[in-house]
Amino acid sequence: MAEKIKLKIIGLSYSQTQSGAYALILGEEKGKRRLPIIIGNFEAQAIAIEIEKMKSSRPLTHDVFKTFAESFDITIQEVIIYNLVEGIFYAKLLCKQKGSDKTIEIDARTSDSIALAVRFNCPVYTYEFILSNAGIVLDDDPTLTASTKVSEEIEISEITEDDEITVLPNDELQKKLEEAIANEDYEVASKIRDELNRRK
Predict the structure, then answer these.
(1) What's the chain's Rg over C-alpha atoms?
(2) What's the pTM?
(3) Does 117 lie in the same domain as 20?
(4) Last residue of a domain, which of 120, 136, 154?
């Protein structure tokens, strides 16, 4: 079985390419690679609310799931982002019921999985092939410990248009990739990386 790599949440930012969406930035715990994942507004709020320990007037869907699971002595042991197909990440919850040695795997969207992981305080993992294909390598930078508050987002500039990415030569794309990484434009860097990988 492939070795799992532990991830941590680095931050959340507004998506400049998809209206009403956010970029969730995950990073390997013992490394410099970052994994940007585009998620919806509801899931972004669910993650931010729990991380910031804020209280909503009524329980959110993920809070209801946690209460339901705990009522039956079920806990989420870990979350694994196990596959990446055509830019879509696939995740699963590994669950256990008190008194049972059996682990139940539940397929779930990555955004929902992370929202539940922060509620159950369980680790999040992925595999090397996913980080190799979708990860962005960054040098050590103290600004990467930015708050995960949506109101204190990591800045993502209004950068390269998709059509420009597809027509630029490889050397120009590589330069833009380096610029995007230097500016912490994770979402753009992710798009450029995907285009370079597609051309290989």
Answers:
(1) 18
(2) 0.70
(3) yes
(4) 154
At 147 the pLDDT is 36
Instruction: Report how many domains make up the chain.
Output: 2
Q: Say which CATH number the domain at 97 has.
A: 3.10.690.10
Q: Tell me, yes or no, whether 104 and 133 share the same domain.
A: yes
35 and 102, same domain (yes or no): yes
For 44-79, write each residue's pLDDT tens digit.
888 988 888 877 778 889 999 999 999 999 999 999
How far is 41 from 74, CA to CA, in rounded Å? 27
User: Could you give the CA distance from residue 194 to residue 135 in angstroms, rounded to a whole number?
Assistant: 10
DSSP code for 152: G
36-44: long-range contacts (C-beta < 8 A, 24 or more apart)? 36/134, 36/136, 36/186, 36/187, 36/189, 36/190, 37/89, 37/110, 37/111, 38/187, 39/110, 39/111, 39/114, 40/111, 43/109, 43/111, 43/112, 43/114, 43/115, 44/12, 44/111, 44/150
Check residue 40 and give its pLDDT. 86
Q: Three-state SS for 57?
A: coil
pLDDT value at residue 30: 86
For 71, the domain range is: 4-154
pLDDT at 160 over 60: no
